[in-house]
Amino acid sequence: MNNKSKEATCLKRQLIFLYLNIFIDMKAILFQFILLVFFTFQLNGQKKALLILPISKNNIIVIAHRGDHTAAPENSLLSIQNAIKDEADYVELDIRTTLDSRLVLMHDASVNRMTNGQGKVAEMSYDSIRSLKLFNKNSLHSDTLTIPTFEEALQICKQKINIYLDFKNADVKKVYEAIAAANMESQIVVYINTPNQYMEWRKQVPTMPLILSLNSKIKDSAEMVAYLNRVNIDILDGNWNEYNKETIKAALSQGVPVWADMQSVNEDEAYWNKGIELGLSGIQTDHPKELIEYLKRESLLSKSTKLHKPN
After folding, report:
1. In a 10 Å sphere around its CB, with 0-12 CB exposed, 13-18 middle and 19+ buried, how is residue 59 labelled?
2. pLDDT at 44
């Protein structure tokens, strides 16, 4: 084979490789587009219902992100107890399922970061997970606490604090059976991560308040109203800087409060005040005690209220 033939062959291979990469990229983009369309389609057309959100202690709802884990491992029973002492309205908890179908609290898909063990929650038995010790470098209780079950969390929270349940990986029916068995139906809201989760909750438990982060950029009130007319959701979440005063007011006009994520390594009064000035109905924080103390000093707390979502 002469040099020209070699060069032509090499060029053909490069072109084939380029076309394959373009095809792969297009498939990925197409998949994301189909997922977004499917999600919106599934949400759209769901009949809007009158839902009453759990009773809250504070006018601006305070959500303890993975519990108050400033001095305890996140998602631990101790972090929940701390959030109760802080007088937070909600404790945000992440639910997953073990290999043998037990419901446990863990944010990550694996136990690697938070325990002295290794492995994926979904591939481990409950006994093996229960034998592990939770770890937190800021905690005096490191290596003494275990991964809690969802049922244990329900018992601690009952009549003391509401649960903001981040639905990572679990069966809707099984989770709701645990909630009902604990008589906690009126103290739970559920954050959904996939269209299937939404459909299953709406189908099996239509009275459960559901939370969704914005999946598109909303710039003004008209876009927010149009979005909420397409998407039947009860509470909006997402990063606080995805919202502005106009979009928050528009959401409230549709009966949908915005409980935004403000958890950060840089949380302080000036930072929280940015969210308050926007008109957020709720703030998710890594420092619930300090946030509540600030709200008290600024007289921004009030008596218990119920939030109603209109038809």
Report:
1. middle
2. 52
pLDDT at 52: 86
Tokens coding 209: 């308040």
What does the pLDDT look like over 206-215, one tens digit per residue?
A: 999 999 998 7
C-beta neighbour count of 144 within 10 angstroms:
12
Joined together, the tokens standing for residue 261 give: 């994520």
Strand-strand pairing, 90-97 and 51-52: unpaired
* Coil/strand/helix, residue 13: helix
Give the span between the Cα atoms of 112 and 225, in whole angstroms. 42
- What DSSP line would sit under 209-267, residue for residue? -EEEE-SS---SHHHHHHHHHH---SEEESBGGG--HHHHHHHHHTT--BEEE---TT-
Could you tell me which of 186, 234, 307 has the C-alpha nearest to residue 48? Answer: 234
Closest by Cα among 240, 258, 238 to 249: 258
Backbone angles phi, psi at 215, to 5 degrees: -110, 15
Please identify which residue in the block is written with the tokens 């809690």: 148
136: region left, alpha or beta (phi > 0 left; psi from -120 to 50 alpha): beta
Helix and strand numbers (H, E) in the chain are 10, 11
Residue 5: pLDDT band with limits 50, 70, 90: low
183, amino acid identity: N
Type of residue at 58? N
Question: What DSSP line would sit under 43-98, residue for residue?
Answer: HTTPPP--EEPPPBSSSSEEEEETS--SSS-TTSHHHHHHHHHHT-SEEEEEEEE-
Q: What is the token pair recorded at 76?
A: 């631990």
Number of Cβ atoms within 10 Å of the Cβ of 196: 13
pLDDT of 77 above 80? yes
Q: Which amino acid is at 171?
A: D
HSE-CB at 8 with a 13 A cutoff on CA atoms is: 5
Cβ-contact 281, 252 below 8 angstroms: yes
Instruction: Tell me what pLDDT residue 216 has.
Output: 74
